[in-house]
Amino acid sequence: MSSIGATFNEIAALGGPVVVVLLAVSMVTLAVMLYKLWQFTRSGVGRHRALAEAVSAWDAGDKARARAALRRSTSYLAPVVSMAFDAGPDAVKRLEAEAETRFARLERGFRLLDSVAQLAPLLGLFGTVLGMIAAFQALQDAGSQVDPSILAGGIWVALLTTAVGLVVAMPTALVLSWFEGRMDAERVTAERAIHIILAPRGLDAATVEAAAPRAAVHG
């Protein structure tokens, strides 16, 4: 543990306050990533085998098997599908809103990850600019006794902040892209399930949505 602290202090001394900020941001970002992975796993994101079986059974007209399969599902979308089983064609928008509420819970933290992916390189560049200013000030203070190692060392330290910024930003952008891809797939799964359950065979999703306002008028 002491060696990690010594390494942290050494990096902070080399890169200055900007590197310290980036290291703090990286730890927060890592914590958010791990939490989102745990949340996705706990919610059953991507694990919809029993849910798909329930939807297929309902589409085939076997409602008893559909409900039995749904009871085995550990997916966070199971309550939405259960509501769809007991709803009419006019409930499409409500069920989509229920699904979006669950998606919103899973997407909390995405904005933070997106901000880190965009701002970390800029923060690293800011540190580089500050380091270059300090290097040239040292060069100016040296006067006629110019030592090239002063400028070279200053540039090396300055560029360290850019490197740290990129190291923080690139994995964050990659993981965020993966999270967003999973959520896009989840939306497709939910939309398909809702429309298959509510649309009788031979009707497409547009027909079901068109039936909603008519049902509201007659009601």
In terms of DSSP E residues, the strand content is under 5%
Tell me, briefly, the overall form: rod-shaped
Mean pLDDT: 82
Q: Please tell me how large the radius of gyration is.
A: 27 Å
Number of separate helices: 9
How far is the first residue's CA from the last residue's CA? Answer: 69 Å
Structural class from helices and strands?
mainly alpha
Main beta sheet strand tally, sense and closure: none
Oligomer: single chain
Low-confidence parts lasting 5 or more residues at pLDDT below 50?
A: 202-208, 211-219
How much helicity do the residues have? over 70%
Number of strands: 0
- The helix/strand order is HHHHHHHHH
Quick overview:
The protein is an all-alpha fold and 219 residues long.
Polypeptide structure, described:
The protein starts with a helix and ends with a helix. The chain has helices at residues 2-15, 17-43, 49-59, 63-72, 78-85, 92-106, 110-142, 148-198, 205-218. The protein has 219 residues and is mostly helical. Helices cover 84% and strands 0% of the residues. The longest helix has 51 residues, at 148-198. Residues 202-208 and 211-219 have low confidence and may be disordered.
Observed structural traits:
mainly alpha; disordered C terminus; 219 residues
Give the helices and strands, then pairings.
Elements: H1 2-15, H2 17-43, H3 49-59, H4 63-72, H5 78-85, H6 92-106, H7 110-142, H8 148-198, H9 205-218
Helix pairs in contact: 1-2, 2-7, 2-8, 3-4, 5-6, 5-8, 6-8, 7-8
